[in-house]
Amino acid sequence: MRELVYYVAVSLDGCIAGPQDQFDAFLVEGDHMEGINEEFGDAIPTDIAAHLGIPQSGERFGTVLMGATTHAMGLPAMPSPYRHLEQIVFTHRELPPAENLRTTTEDPVAVVRALKEQPGADIWLCGGAQLATQLRGEIDRLVLKRQPLLFGAGVPLFAPGDYEPEPFAHVRTRTFDSGVSLTEYVRER
């Protein structure tokens, strides 16, 4: 069965973006990039991967899920940022048609449960915090690219809420000289 993987960069203070949704402070150069790009090449925008010569096999991820704010970060330059994947944007906004991209107002939990029943590679939860919170109970695996910086405020990994603790087991951590660490957890069932 396909897994829902929340693969995301996060600051030391638990933010996936700064107070104005900025994410450009995250390190995109350094010794961490080669290892991360090799394993998670499917999570790089199609045009950027092509420009850098990074293969995108579709073996790791077959589908990417985004909220409207996450998708809008690439607009207008990249209306279909991950054309190599099935892209689903959860939004009530009207978006122009784009290659391999669909928008929906459907319940994200119902969509994910249906996707998990289909054959294929894993499902990547790209962001943001509101969507991650809605899908919290469906997340099978967390892969956090912990960045050595503090935003002080911003978009949290999950939106604040009153919910029960959900245990995850540590799978691995890989630390790079750049200060970035890649940590993976799997949901304890």
From TrEMBL:
Classification via SUPFAM superfamilies: Dihydrofolate reductase-like
Superkingdom field: Bacteria
Domain Bacterial bifunctional deaminase-reductase C-terminal: residue ranges: 4-178
Pfam family, one: RibD_C
InterPro entries: DHFR-like_dom_sf (IPR024072), RibDG_C (IPR002734), Riboflavin_Biosynth_HTPR (IPR050765)
Signal sequence bounds: none
Listed name of the protein: Dihydrofolate reductase family protein
Organism name: Brachybacterium rhamnosum
